[in-house]
Amino acid sequence: MEQPPHSPSTSSSMDLERPDLYINRELSWIEFNRRVFEEAQDSRHPLLERVKFLSIFDTNLDEFMMIRVAGLKDKVAARATTPSPDGLSAEEQLREVRRRLAPLVQEVRRYWRQELLPRLAEQHIYILDYEQLDEEQRAALAEYFEYEIFPVLTPLAVDPGHPFPHISNRSLNLAVVINDAVHGERFARVKVPPRLPRFIQVPLPLHARTAPGVQPVAFVWIEQVIAAHLSRLFPGIDVWESYPFRVLRDADIELQEDEASDLLEDVEKSVRERRFGSVVDLAVNPSMPPRIRSLLLDNLEIDASDLTVIDGPLGMGDLMELHALNRPDLKDPPFTPRVPRLLSKYCGDLFAAIREQDLLLHRPYDSFGVVVDFIRAAATDPQVLAIKQTLYRVGTNSPVVHALLEAVEHGKQVATLVELKARFDEENNIEWARALERAGVHVVYGLIGLKTHAKVALVVRREPDGLRRYVHLSTGNYNALTARTYEDFCLLTCDPVIGADVSDLFNSLTGYSRLNAYRKLLVAPVSLRRGILERIEREIRLRREYGYGLLIFKLNALVDPEIIYKLYEASQAGVQIELIVRGICCLRPGIPGISENIRVRSIVGRFLEHSRIFYFYNGGAEELFLGSADMMQRNLNNRVETLFPIEDPHLRQAIRERVLEILLADTVNARELLPDGTYARLRPQPGEPPLDCQAWFLRHPLLEEDDNDEAGPTISALPSGA
Question: Which domain of life is it from (predicted)?
Answer without folding.
Answer: Bacteria
